[in-house]
Amino acid sequence: MPQLGESIAEATVVRIDIAIGDVVKADQEVIEVETQKATMGVTTLCQGVVRELNVQEGETYAVGTTLGLLEVEADEVEKTGVETLEAAAEKRVNTAAEEEEKNLHFAVDDDTYEERQPVVEPSVKGLPVPAGVMGAHYISPRMRARMAELGLREADISAVVGTGAGGRVTVQDLEAFLDYIEEWPSSQASPMRLAVADAMRRSWSRPLATVSRPVRLDRALDHRRAQDPKPGLTLYLLRAFALALAEDPASAGFLIGERIVHPRAFDIGVAVQVEDGVVVPVLRNVDSMNLGQLTGAYAEMVDRARRRRLTEDDTRGGIATVTNFGTFGLTNGTPIPLPNETLILGLAAGEKKPIWSKEVEAFVPATEAELAVTFDHRVVDGGGAGLLLARIAELLQSPEKL
Amino acid sequence: MSITYVDAIREAQEQLLKDDPRVFLYGQDISRFGGAFKATKGLADAYPGRVLDSPISEDAMVGMAIGSAIDGMRPILEMQFADFSSVGFNQIVNQAATHFYRTGIPVPITVRLPSGGTPGSGPFHSQSMESIYAHYPGLVVVTPATVSDAYQMLIESVALDDPVLYCEHKFLYRWLKAPKIDHDGLPLGRARITRHGRHATIVTYSAMVHEAVRAADRLQQESGWEIEVVDLRTVKPLDMDTVLASVARTGRLLTLGESFPWGGVTAEVVARVCSEGFHLLDAPPKRLNSRDTPVPYHPNLWAAHRPTPESICIAMRELLSF
Amino acid sequence: MLEARQLETKLASLYKAGKIVGGVYLGKGQEAVSASLGGSLKWKHDVFAPLIRDQGGRTAFGEDLLDCARTYLGSVEGPMRGRDGNIHRGRPAEGLLAMISHLGAAVPVVTGMLLARRLKGELDGVVGATCIGDGGTSTGAFHEGLNAAAVEKLPLVVVVANNQFAYSTPNDRQFACEDLYDRAKGYGVAGHRVDGTDFLACLRVIGGAVASARAGGGPQMVVANLLRLSGHGEHDDGSYVPDTLRAGHLGQDCMDVARQQMVDSGYATAEEIEGWRSELEDRVQRALAKAQQETKPDPWHETWQACSQNPALPFEA
């Protein structure tokens, strides 16, 4: 079907003046077609015998449709330069191969292009988007490029007082600050320090909250004394934490877009203080191992951590972390979870104090410590965190089950 | 002894007529009368038969210039006012601009466009057409701002094998003087740093270069800001190397032009800096053009229609305080 | 004339067979006028700016058949290399201008080429010619160009092929003067009138106008009356042309008239003419076959450069 007019995409076959087996001359009008613009005769390119007719009267066909095929003598082909089926097929193959290569340069292929629905809608009427672009935290493209060049993060320049619009830090402010700190003594941060700094900075980009409550440790401590080898108090906590999470895995899930990603296994990390930093080796399937089984693995892991012999696998894949900052004599703390974890459980130092006992109606001595959990408030709420702590406290009261 | 901007244009044409037998001048009232602005004064007598009066037929004037250029001549066409080139627009953008691409035969015509506003000239004798012509592939558009550039760039425009729209600013004709023509060797197509600075860049061209320098001097005196001024000289093709290098030094950009605000040279420079030099910007680039109305007649209105040192200073303070 | 008719018939057929992209615009019915003009001009000496229905004039002036075939079929071997198509072709360096679509725009360009010849002292014996239709005479460029040529007294010949319709618009919606010929006096140019279907008359009048311009007679305007025997382009069936007009004097085919005139005058026999026709048909066929098999433009190897020079590069004035 020829292109009959500049804006024509299709034409209707009005009349077919030939039949299969007819002999046609060159330039003979053989099919009459109609477009919005006019009625036209379609002509043959050369002399030949009609072998195929692919169209019917009254039907509409797209421009470029093969209307029919002629059988043509070889010398007529040579003389008129018409395209044979073989030549057309060969051309298609070549073009296809070329297209494939060329398509590398094109982002959109005509055949598969679909009009896309807009997904971004204005959020608030009348408010400039993005809101607050003039605010103190706006970082210009040039600032961003300069900071990248110097390896600086937003947190690094929090000390700089901005003189730009809305107090934003301009490049001049940054350069002045860099000149200023040149006058102070400084030293190179260790790789360990930088790794911790990076993890904490990334984690701090979330709304983190901490709640705590006291827990009784007497039974756990009594149980521990009866064991050989003695499991660390951290392991009791680890087990109680794992069992509590196994009852409510969603509280350890993390939020990605609109999805909560649930734990695949209850692999829990333990924070180990090392020189100039903290490392977090992960113990696997803590919910299905007993204290005895965990004790050896834990000791070996801590030893390797202190000797800096942990592999990447040892620290990968935790769903939460336990930290026993009580070992530093601290009675309170707000630990920060790793960037890929929603929860961190922290135990403060135990203190022996008088506790009112309902049974004996008197103060009795008991060992108590603050148990804190820090959580991503997007995933967990204060109430949920409180219930989690209560359950852990309860489990610690039955150490024989751990 | 000093030479004005319009003297430089006249002298360049005289030099061209003297040096190149292919050069002839064609335009309204340019022969014995010497042109509406006397840019061809005395040339008809000195070069008889080569400085020709045309009928008031801008379409035919451009068409004839094209025909003569195809036949080997180097015509310089004087539009009496840039505004009237709209009548010859078809020949410029469809005939001259497409000819080399279509046929492989270049069309070395130079169309002089007396451009820009002067007090009292009104809507039809004040327009700046460079943005319109720069839109079309196949055209070179130059906008000299200095006496020496007026001379040198006209010589180079005629030597170029492609059609050149030579936008000469009427306000500069007699206002701008130099002790002598003293060219620094910068070729057509290269921008010039007219004034050095480190706090912000003003990219501009033609008469606005002088307004920008005045504003920059004022900002330096009053607040100590050091403003760099880039004179594009040629708006098509754009010398983005020089523009980006300046923005890399300063981080802030104002583009300034006398033409209408919708689109155009100032918008093109901002668009290119944003896409090619986003990381260089410490503040959103600004544009300053005339107001979005026809050029008004009365001098009070005219002076407020185009950018002035005052309005440039206001825009610069906004830019510098971001 | 005969070659043009054979060529255009074949082009129409290729278009209707889907081998030509864009449009095909025929000069069917205008061959006598066009060929009389082209045949009166000298290749590489005179200047000719044909318009859309001037295959006859192009061929008579000396344009190679292959230029036409290659431009219509988009061969890179052609003068336009696929950058422009169909009738928008030419060889400006040889005096054959490449038209743009804007009617009348060529009139000042031809005038300018003649002005250049005068300035170079090469005008003697040179003629610049262009064709235009009845519709094109309504444009400003036609008026400005013809006026300017008259002012400069340049040897410009403008042939107006009044084929009664500008696309579908009839003469009475195009101009109000009684005859376009009357305009010549207003411009101060010599005016001529001719029956565009009468081959011998065309040769005499148009050839005479060219000779007069060549001899220093200044600009000439010839108005030839005829009827377009096809649509505006091959996408148009010309259904707006009344049957009475087709059946009348203007509806006669100038090819038939020319054939009869040649036989009657004893210039050629009917058999000889048929012999030429069949030979030309073969030449046309081979040119089109060759162009069809030639390389088509490749966007990956296109320069995409609209200017011949890069002024940003170091430049010597």
Automatic annotation (TrEMBL), chain B:
Keywords: Oxidoreductase, Thiamine pyrophosphate
Oxidoreductase recorded as keyword: yes
Residue ranges of every copy of the Transketolase-like pyrimidine-binding domain listed in the record: 3-175
GO molecular function: oxidoreductase activity
CDD domains associated with the record: TPP_PYR_E1-PDHc-beta_like
Cofactor: thiamine diphosphate
Name listed for the protein in its UniProt record: Alpha-ketoacid dehydrogenase subunit beta
Lineage per the UniProt record: Bacteria, Pseudomonadati, Verrucomicrobiota, Verrucomicrobiia, Verrucomicrobiales
TrEMBL record, chain C:
Annotated protein name in UniProt: Thiamine pyrophosphate-dependent dehydrogenase E1 component subunit alpha
A GO term, aspect molecular function: pyruvate dehydrogenase (acetyl-transferring) activity
InterPro entries in the record: DH_E1, PDH_E1_Alpha_Subunit, THDP-binding
Example GO biological process: pyruvate decarboxylation to acetyl-CoA
Superkingdom of the organism of origin: Bacteria
Keyword Oxidoreductase in annotation: yes
Statement: the UniProt record of this protein carries the keyword Oxidoreductase: yes
Keywords from the named record: Oxidoreductase, Thiamine pyrophosphate
Region of interest (Disordered), ranges: 291-317
Domain Dehydrogenase E1 component, first and last residues per copy: 5-299
Cofactor: thiamine diphosphate
Coiled-coil residues: none
